Amino acid sequence: MWLQTLLLLGLVGLMLDVCYGYSSEDEDYYMQELLSREHYQRVSEGRATDGLQTPGRGIRKESRSTSAASKAAGGSDSASAVKSGNKKSEKNKKAVKAAGGVSDGSFTADKDDCPPLGLETLKIDDFQLHASTMRHYGLGPHRGRLNIQGGLLEDDLYDGGWCAGRNDPLQWFEVDARRLMKFTGVVTQGRSSLWSSDWVSSYKVLLSNDSHSWVTLKNGSRDLIFIGNREKEIPVLNTFPKPIVARYIRINPRSWFPSGGICMRVEILGCPMPDPNNYYRRRNEVTTTDNLDFRHHSYKEMRQLMKVVNDMCPNITRIYNIGKSYNGQKLYAIEISDNPGEHELGEPEFRYTAGSHGNEVLGRELLLLLMQFMCQEYLSGNPRIRHLVDETRIHLLPSINPDGYEKAFAAGSELSGWSLGRWSHDGLDIHHNFPDLNAVLWEAEARNWVPRKFHNHHVPIPDWYRSENATVAVETRALVSWMEKIPFVLGGNLQGGELVVTFPFDRTRSVTALRQLTPTADDHVFRWLAFSYASTHRLMTDVSRRVCHTDDFAKEDGTINGASWHTAAGSMNDFSYLHTNCFELSMYVGCDKYPHESELPEEWENNRESLLVFMEQVHRGIKGVIRDVQGKGIANAIVSVDGINHDIRTASDGDYWRLLNPGEYRVMVRAEGFSVSSKVCTVGYDIGASRCDFVLGRSNLSRIKEIMQKFNKQPISMRERLRQRRLLDT
């Protein structure tokens, strides 16, 4: 009996030893409120005596590795192990772990490069995030995720971070990992807002296994205080001196921007501890069986990977470049086809592009994975992939903006923020750097020039845009030339930061409207194309998933008209539709623009089927060849569909492809010097475009012109004949 009593007293004493600072700080916030408000004020002004000091300098330059040592605000640069405040606790480290306390990390000597827990990628759900207080629901702990964006109006539902209801040093933001984790660091930002400036400039870190007893990370005998942010957007990484094993982690702000308040966006770094009995983790794991190179690639590594794919599948691949970036890096593309390097009569051309925003890295890596996958599956005899390659000429351009990517890549996945590397080297948004042909077409329609004086398709590029002095990125010029050279039928550009597929138009007709439904003449086709990608994505149409930022696109089947989301002139999608035959859509493939390397297998599984299904849609609608009576293909012939105010044109060999939904259509073909021809073409529900060929005879006027030219005589126009007849009559 006496032995049990001694053991109980020892455990009680042990729990007291691992408590930090003041004993009352282990209690709930509302109990802590009993402390003097004068003390809170002194702390917030940096005059308290608990070890808080105004940071003398920021943390050292962030690298992509999460193993760099953090700097304490107290001026210590040491990476020594976290120690408890007295010798008794030091002697009983193992007992602490056995009693349910938190390990101080001194049991290990290695530095772990641990991935993020997933606040940004939404792997951590809202119920795992808690806080002492919140200003209002839209600034609750569920919004305290790294890189989360606030809405333009900053309403009560969707704001840009977690903000405490009170500005005092007893506030905290808590993450429940739902399993034992080896925590290694914290990344913080301020509040995302157009109208206010709020961030935390220093903080403590506390850990627990039961959410009741908390241990503060220490620097010797003093609480370790980490330097936070100096502005609201640039992420700041602080790594722990040694990994700490626990389930719960709290961030306790100690100072903040004086003109703002306590607001944070957070990501936690940590490695899961082995736990085969953890049902929650097993249930949510997504694995892949594809043997692919799941990592982030530098520009040089990207070239090497494309070369490896080309060496593996030389008969179906070809590497080429469409131009150079501002810094002279070649914009490499890979072609996948059974006859690479040439356009085959009747075979549609498809393209995927990525990386127009250099910091939206996921799309780039998905295309690198896609080219590996298609090569491997083609070699293994996968009938679906073989049919796709044999019947389609596929172009993959993984990095439109390699200059911007290099900036984001140098910072790393958690430190590149929301915009580092987004623009080209000369500061232009490549995706929205195309000529605004919407305004040109709509002005012609307002003047009733369409279709007599102005075509409803292949809208010409204004002369000013092609001038050398125009504010056009060299990457955009390369894209325009590429799009004009190859008769693409369907294309998708991979973006990041959301989970949605957008389709034209991207610009509203009203110049004053920020968002307004602005459909094209092919709206029903675009909606089907968008749905084909979104519906086969693992998450886009899941109505139970959490929104990435402010919009719940799952309610709209994971798709939206671009102008209904936000207006943007000169987009790649609108330009492609109005200037070429190609129907272009944007796929926002993940909430996290630059996911950690460890997330790539799951992101591949999320998008793999969608990438393939969307490519297959290039074979939906009608196709054919327009020939003259001698069997020669007629280039630049206009193909019109009754009821759709948007035409397309034939390629140089006279072949064409017109994307259409299932149904019967009256199709009319006309070309200069030829008679007009029309017929009814039927589109079925099965994949595979319906054949609809045309043979055009020469028009009577063109025959007269040919005869006159043959005998070196000029044809006399009807007006000239009438004038001569009047002269004879007088």
TrEMBL record:
Keywords: Disulfide bond, Glycoprotein, Secreted, Signal. The keyword Glycoprotein applies. Residues 295-618 form the Peptidase M14 domain. Gene3D superfamilies: Carboxypeptidase-like, regulatory domain, Galactose-binding domain-like, Zn peptidases. One of its GO terms (cellular component) is extracellular region. Residues 1-21 form the signal peptide. Residues 44-97 are annotated as: Disordered. May be involved in cell-cell interactions. PANTHER family: INACTIVE CARBOXYPEPTIDASE-LIKE PROTEIN X2, PROTEASE M14 CARBOXYPEPTIDASE. This is Inactive carboxypeptidase-like protein X2.
